[in-house]
Amino acid sequence: MRELYESGLPLKKVCEQVGASRATVTRHLRKAGVQLRNQGLDDAELKIATDRYRGGETLAQIGKALSVSPTTVGTYLRNSGTELRPSRAVAGVPHSRAS
User: Are residues 48 and 87 in the same domain?
Assistant: First the structure.
């Protein structure tokens, strides 16, 4: 895993080759002391995120599906011109732990 990543293979391709999620590969690489390159969404993942968000999914749901944080999803959506819905807390709806 480390050798693949350090050879320059994108994290997504490393995940595909070793059959593990992005979160698992990232955790193992960090534990091994590997300095990670900039993480985020590629163009295909951004399209998926945009479609899912417009379909009503939350940033947390999309982030979980794409193995990135909800903050990353929100940042990429905003930067691509997608207007974000108000958070549930701002809208007066209590947050729920169930996702």
Answer: yes
48 CA to centre of own chain: 11
Residue ranges of the alpha helices (H) in 1-99?
Answer: 2-6, 11-18, 22-31, 43-54, 59-66, 70-79
Query: Which tens digit of pLDDT belongs to each residue from 20-46?
Result: 998 899 999 999 999 888 778 889 999
Q: What is the CATH number of the domain that holds 79?
A: 1.10.10
Q: Using alpha carbons only, how large is the chain's radius of gyration in Å?
A: 15
Q: What is the pTM of this model?
A: 0.60
What residues make up the domain containing 48? 40-93
Do 24 and 45 share a domain, yes or no?
Answer: no
CB burial readout 80-99, b (16+ within 10 A) else e: eeeeeeeeeeeeeeeeeeee
Spatial CA neighbour of 45 closest among 1, 87, 77, 19: 77
